[in-house]
Amino acid sequence: MEPKEFKSSITERRKEVLASLGSLGAKIYEQIDKGYFPSIEMPSRSTENIYYDQKFRQFILGDKKVKRSARNIRHLKPFAQLVWTALFSYELTSQRKTSTLRDVYYSAQAYEMTFKDQQESNNIITDLETVLGFSREDFNIFPEERSAVFGDLTIRYTVPGYEGKTLNLTSHPDGVMIGPALTSSEFVETSADKVIAIEKGGLFTRFIEENVHKKFNALLVLTAGQAPRATRHFIRRLNKELKLPVYIFTDGDPWGMHIAMVIISGSANAAHLRDLTTPDAKWSGVWATDIVNYKLPTDPLDDIDMKRLYELQKDPRYKEDPLWQREIKTFMKIRRKAEQEAFSRYGLTYIVDEYLPAKLEETK
Amino acid sequence: MAQVTFEEISASDFFYRNRDIAGFTNPTRAIFAAIRELVENSLDAAESLKIPPEIYVRLSFEGEASKETQIYKLRVEDNGCGVPPRHIPSAFGQVLFGSKYKLKQQRGTFGLGGKMAILYGQITTHQHATIISSTDKSKIYMYKLMIDIQKNRPIILDRKVFLNKEGWRGTVVEFSLEGDYLRAMPKILEYFKQTAMVNPYANLTFVDPKGRLYKFTRATTVMPDPPKETLPHPYGVDVELLQRLIQVTPYNNMLEFLKYHFHRVGEITANKFLAFSGISPSKNPKKLSHEEIVRLMHMLKKFKDFLPPDASCLSPLGEELLKTGVLKELKPEFVAVHQRKPATYAGHPFIVEVAIAYGGEIPQRGGFVIYRFANRIPLLYDEASDVSVKVINAMNWRRYKVTPDMPIAIVVHICSTKVPYKTVGKEFIADRPEVRREIANGLREVARQLQHFLSRREHVDKEKKRLGVFSKYLPKIAQFSTKLAGREKPPDIEKLLRSVKKFGAEGV
Ligand SMILES: Nc1ncnc2c1ncn2[C@@H]1O[C@H](COP(=O)(O)OP(=O)(O)OP(=O)(O)O)[C@@H](O)[C@H]1O
Ligand SMILES: [Mg+2]
């Protein structure tokens, strides 16, 4: 297959982020200059204002707005914290530095802007996301959790010190961490024609050993459990920019199923954000019906698992595709669950030789 | 066979045997009680002339008495009215002799206190007391006395007269006694402090056996009006008193008898009462039978139209002086004082004065600090039995947003011609419903004022804090947004801060 060159959105997006932060500053500056108490309006994130949107196929925020005003004494401190966070993000983004959520919490102390705790600073960052409609990763603020990618994709770094350098993502056999440097890089070329996302590290390593990336022409992404936002955004970019179909493999239980769902349709916590979902991605397994069809070794579903199933059954995201309801019902019927590793009962390569091609075909 | 013998004992013998009831329970209590009794006599003596008291007390070490007790010499000097020379021996050497049996408010009442101290000194050290006094600025008299306990008579050991060259007036009492000063010290110092609190016009000096000087300096020379002597009120009489009055009265009809011997009884009231009780106005009181006297007493108590006793026989401290005293000795952040209108119990007029003090140097100790006073005497023992303490404990303080963990001192002062003491030791006040009601009402009033103060202060604090929040964060918002907008000069926030100050309440 001929490698293609792609135009990346990274540089563009950074410009947009900086402009939007700057105009927030200008708006507040002007309000004060005119003798008004500055205020900011943003969509409410309370549960009554979270809706599932059929068109976007994700949760979105409704029309309800909340106003933060510096006239209100209870808003005053969070308001100042928000402006500080905006300034901090501006400096990070323009200097192309990154920082963790924890860093933000500590950096504030240098400005006598102490946050009560990590939770408070996380909340303010979410506020800023809501006000501007960008996610914290756009402001170069990352959580601690990391996941990885492996496969034939060449990227070009934009981080200072590495600007312009390229890297092929097969260059390290453990995969390359999906961190700030990777998510801020531009895609140069790839020979892959699909993305396979995997929940667990063990299977990710096995797939690399078994040359799944070559055999199936695939980029392998390790979500390491529930995929972090940066990883979800990264998967979306692979899907949108490289036009690669995405297949997700998880454990065969309600929790695995939901890992796939969050990659596809997002979470309620991120209802204020776009560009974190990949609506066309597919959950390829392990399904409840796979457990039956492949006669996998299983464990019983416990009460918590069952409770989760009932919750998911009512969730609007699970009403999109009849597949979900069918699988939920099957889980409820068989009351069993199976891990991805369960295929080892048929030999270590069975999952790669038999199961994977079959499921890729089935969910195409 | 055992023989039963009967004997009479004298008043001094009685109190010698029962010195507990006068407060001379043990060496610690005794030394405290002796100082207290003499200081109170001195205060009375100065106040009777309405001159600011100047009292000097010295306790000096004389020698060891036992393992735990020592012999001390106590000397108390004052600038009071002095004692007429012919009365000196009895005033200091005869129990139940005194000048204060009249119906007006004074500290002394029983004619006992000073003598109990001297008596205690005499039985513990077998030494005489020395009294030096001058009333008229021309001569000074000095007596050396002992008390003949069995006969209740003074024994004069020596008597001297000096020329009063410097025009001194006052009294000096000096004698030795056994005691335990170290143990008594906290109470003695507390006694001086509290005495200074309710006598803010007095100078008190105390030199203790270690030579330490404690000085309580007056904060004012204003003194309360001295009490006037008064007639007995009809509600307060008993058969004994009626009989005594009938014996001495020069009047030979009931109308005049009532009119001239009783407080608050005029011609009209007397006639009304006589009609009410069916006694002829012209009846000669001396002709009343014993039964008639008993009936008269009951009718007097039953009749509803006597005006309550007026309070001119009382000498309360007054709100101003009480406040001065509390501020001087407790140094609180806030004090509220309240004087109740005169009231009566069993025909005896009394006035309750209360104060509540908050913050400043008042300690926070998980309960109110309670100061009890009667006729300007601090009451330091038996707090738990006192009526004020009962009222304070029964009160619903939470209604006034007051909690025991606040630094609060409560002062209750009762003045009366007859303070309802439970004992002659004058340590706590009996629980009379009338007294209880007055204390409770007084406390409610000052508690309300305290609540008002606290909520005002809370408001001011909140305002300050509010302003603090704005002045902390507005400049930051201005500073951050200036940088974020890429501007040079931060916007002017003064206008916003001014409007925060002006409109106390917050708009949204
Ligand atoms: N320092 C003094 N100056 C002037 N008179 C005094 C002084 N000390 C005592 N007296 C006189 O001596 C009398 C007897 O005093 P004492 O203390 O024994 O009894 P009291 O004060 O009358 O009553 P109480 O038993 O309540 O103290 C007093 O009534 C007073 O007239
Ligand atoms: Mg006395």
Describe the structure.
The complex is a heterodimer of chains A (364) and B (508). Chain A has 364 residues and is an alpha/beta fold. Chain A is 42% helix and 17% strand. In chain A, helix 1 runs antiparallel to helix 2 (73-94), helix 2 (73-94) packs across helix 4 (118-132) and helix 11 packs antiparallel against helix 12. The two termini of chain A are 20 Å apart. Chain B is globular. In chain B, strand 7 and strand 8 (213-216) form a beta hairpin. Chain B has an 8-stranded mixed β-sheet with strand order 5-4-3-6-2-1-7-8. In chain B, strands 9, 10, 11, 12, 13 and 14 form a 6-stranded mixed β-sheet that branches. Chain B starts with 10 loop residues before the first helix and ends in a 6-residue tail after the last helix. The relative contact order of chain B is 0.09. The longest helix of chain B is centred in the C-terminal third of the chain and has 53 residues, at 433-485. The interface between A and B is medium-sized, with 29 and 24 residues. Magnesium ion (MG) is lined by residues 37, 40-41, 108, 113-114 of chain B. Adenosine-5'-triphosphate is lined by residues 37, 41-42, 45, 78, 80-83, 91, 98-100, 108-115, 171 of chain B.
